[in-house]
UniProtKB/TrEMBL annotation:
This is Glutathione S-transferase. One of its GO terms (molecular function) is glutathione transferase activity. SUPFAM superfamilies: GST C-terminal domain-like. It comes from Solanum verrucosum. InterPro entries: Glutathione-S-Trfase_C_sf, GSTL1/2/3.
Amino acid sequence: MQDLQDKIKLVPIDLQNMPDWYKEKVYPTNKVDTTCAPFIERFQIFMLEGFNYDITTGRPKLAKWIEEMNKLDGYKQTKVLEREKMVEYYQNRFLPVLTLQTIDTFFF
């Protein structure tokens, strides 16, 4: 491990002005989006089933983003297959501590 750490060179990056290699190699367009999509999908399902709240209402960019993610083959592999089991798990895990009042503070 130490040999590997000795070979790693840290390079300072100005996050406001990222170099082209960073944009291409580290954060390519739409690649990191696929890592967020499963969370958004599960959150959308839980909010719709648990609170009857559609997170895309009034958010056309979010709705379009979800629509575009659903077209990607790499994302399709992560889709929730058993919605009911997922919702039941989330309800048991999160609803005892969440109330509509705390939900309102997050979204309104």
